[in-house]
Design a protein that fits this description.
The protein is α+β, with helices and mostly antiparallel strands and about 250 residues long. About 30% of the residues lie in helices and about 30% in strands.
């Protein structure tokens, strides 16, 4: 029973920390845990210190912050016996594109854990391992209403007719931090962007696709199954905007 966040750090400073902590707090609230206090200032200091100790004050690094309900009794979730820990590791060279396939099972949009970033992560890891063994880098999930939901470790955007389309949160997808940033960037740059219910036919009609995550940012999908996508100027604009925001140190 745990929630966690994975953050990008650039040159020794975490990015979008406030948004990540808000989502972490929201996850704890969804689990009915109110006795865990989160200090943004204290956690930022701890992150900067950990990055420095691990020799990660320059370049890009991955911070993982997890809160577990610890050794409390199994019949009492909010026992106050929470544990927290943090890791900081280098970010490997990031791929410019990714090839994706479809997961052979569906996400349950009625699950009590839908939209939560919880430590029960086996499904995601199994999907990623399956994708790699099939020669892909990611898997797309549809939900039990056959609606596009998300990728195993990322949110998904489609490009069609000069617009960005992404599944709404009611699909069961995670409220991704980079997903939210891309939606804001699109509005700031007058790029049409809509959250909506997306079916398999919408994926078929898409002229482009990209995934978003905190570490990789927006990554262009070069192929979905046997279908290949060409480069798209809308994706290039989104990627450039994300890089600019990460360089500025937004919070």
């Amino acid at each position: 029973m745990s929630v966690f966040e994975t953050l990008l750090a650039v040159d020794g400073e975490p990015r979008l920390l406030r948004a990540h902590l808000d989502r972490l707090r929201g996850g704890l609230d969804r689990l009915a845990v109110s006795r865990v206090e989160l200090s943004g200032t204290g956690l930022r200091r701890a992150m900067v210190g950990l990055l420095e100790k691990n020799g990660l004050s320059c370049g890009m690094a991955r911070i993982r912050l997890a809160v577990s309900l610890g050794a409390g009794p199994l019949n009492l979730i909010d026992s106050g016996a929470a544990w927290a820990w943090m890791t900081a590791t280098p970010v490997d060279e990031l791929p410019e594109t990714v090839r994706v396939t479809t997961a052979p099972w569906r996400r349950d949009r009625e699950s009590v854990l839908r939209g939560l970033k919880v430590g029960n992560y086996a499904e995601h890891l199994i999907a990623m391992d399956m994708a790699r063994r099939e020669g892909f880098g990611e898997m797309l999930f549809f939900n039990n209403d056959d609606e596009l939901c998300e990728a195993a470790m990322a949110n998904v955007f489609l490009i069609r007719s000069g617009s960005l389309l992404t599944p709404g949160l009611d699909s069961g997808c995670l409220a991704g931090i980079t997903r939210g940033l891309v939606i804001r960037l699109a509005a700031a740059h007058a790029i049409p962007c809509r959250e909506k219910t997306l079916k398999r036919s919408d994926v078929t009609k898409a002229e482009g696709m990209f995934l978003t995550s905190s570490i990789r940012g927006p990554v262009r999908v070069s192929a979905y199954g046997t279908r290949h996508f060409e480069e798209n100027p809308l994706f290039d604009a989104v990627r450039a905007g994300w890089l600019e925001e990460m360089a500025r140190g937004v919070d």
